[in-house]
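Record format v2
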Amino acid sequence: MINDTFDLRSAESHIEVHKFRTGAVAAATIFSLVVQALLPVYFPKADILDLPLLITIYFGLSRRNPSTGLLLGMVIGLLQDSLSKSPLGLYGIAKTIIGYTASSIGARLDTEHPAARFALTAVFFGLHQGVIVLIRRLLLAQPEAWFTARLGIAAGVNAIVAVFLFLLLDHLRKPS
Amino acid sequence: MVAIPSRHKSLVLLAGVVVVQVLFLAVQIKRVSQGRLIRSWTVGAISPFERTGAWGFGRVRSVWRHYFALQDASRENESLRRENSALKLQVEELRSKAGEADRLALLINFRQLNHNVPMLGARVIGASPDTASETIFLDRGEHDGIRRNMAVITPDGVVGKIIEAFQNSAQVLLLTDKDSGVGAMLADSRIQSPVGGTGEPLLVMKYVANDDTVNLGERVVTSGMDRIFPKDLPVGTVTEIKPGNPFKLIRVRPAANLERLEEVIVLLTLRPLEVHKEAEPSTSDAAEKTASGHSTTAKP
């Protein structure tokens, strides 16, 4: 029997590294981009969500490999850039950093509990936004506010959605 | 060669990937005018899913509305909406006959007046996944004759312009985007000033001097000076006026409902258009001529 779940760093830590069904990561990525593009057409308020970010965080936390986490973040970010009018690389850089950070944290902490997922998503949302604002200010000369009430609400909403979305995505894992 | 400790390899990879993307950004900033192949590929790959998703979404919504959720109320509502639309049209027709000029009358006549200007109806199949920009995707592209900088409107007013045309889809920069702008003027005083987006639902009219008189509720229409939008299309209505230095701060509510766009019209021409002066809405002659079926051609 193929055991697709194994312990990270053997006896040092008992945090599981999860593997996913074939095509799950690609399917989830495409699904998030399509839904992200479609939802605001029918529900304008839904533009507060950043589903590609949630996908980046989830697979980063679950796979716990910084290299694959940052590469997945880069791919998702660049795809998101390609579908927007932002310069290519804006979301790419932000999600690369999120993918790396999520994977690194996932390798050290147990991030399966909904409360942990909620808190981490809110923090990652803030970090993601911070990186974007930084790039806009430094590279693109686009002054943008570091924090607004809308961003605070968006962080909370995305964190709540993440708790339920991550539970759904857990079903894509290969059984241990 | 210095070996990188294995625990630092991912950190080095992170730095490498970020640096490459920063350089990539820098290259783009210098070459903003050039088309980007990756965009074309990504949009080409994603837009079929968006198209399918939009179709599926529409079907599911239709089934839900008509068979599950308040079947009678939904149908009655639709019927009343249709009736309401018909009555509104009737009112506009009566106004037109009475010699009153209004924006809808101009729009109804717009096609007649510009019968040599090809127009294309397009469906909105997606919005920008980037929360900082206000763009939408249409289900028509280069294949249908759409090109960059073509004007996009609805019967209510100006929507935006095409910023990217792909094979079977196109990206529209909405008026509300920070980088968007349209040559405009106040309908009554004919004071000209560009109107631009701020990333928020309201637009801003930028260069109206403090000495100029502007009234709340005054209509803002296109001036035609940007050579993209024809003259006298509705842009919006003045909702807020504040004195500023050196210009007034004027906020404008867009005439088109930019948050709920499902179908739009693309003007398939890159030539500057003008609505014939004799048919301008501020003159009663225009309405009379409209009522009597008079039409003129658009000037290139």
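Chain B has five helices and twelve strands.
The first strand of chain B starts at residue 119 and ends at 127.
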